[in-house]
Specification:
alpha/beta, Rossmann fold, 7-stranded mixed β-sheet, about 30% helix, transferase
Length: about 180
Amino acid sequence: MRIISGLYKGRRITAPKKLPVRPTTDMAKEALFNIINNHYYFDDISVLDLFSGTGNISYEFASRGTEQITSVDANFGCIKFINETAEAFDMNITTIKSDVFKFLEKLKQKHTIIFADPPYDFELDTFSKIPELVFKNELLEDTGLLIVEHSKHTDLSHLEHFSYSKSYGGNMFSFFE
């Protein structure tokens, strides 16, 4: 995986093979950040990266100037890798090792962008808990956006607060406002 733009543009990051991850493809990530770039100034936002895995999305935000980034993952190896990479690149990323659903239940801080990249094999009911918890607990700022990455075979358009979706290859991003 590589960082697409910003201070660390072009830098490659190689995650250990033993991590249980499926990083967002460079093509899909570039398209996603083009959408975000049209709505926000990266240095003015706070980001919550759920199911952060390798930290791919967090690094992209950090490279583009975002200072307030929190990455949450249940896997210790993923959190350790994100911490090591953030330190090597001098990125300001806060990591939290936690079950994402338990974390969302307790979280009180609002964010501009909440990005979730859960396992593609989640049941639809499990996917639906993400926007449900985010909006029930009022975790987005007024102009905030929840983005859920999922397989093109999963349809989240019936969920409350759904706005639109974009498809890139086998990846799909659903946007909730």
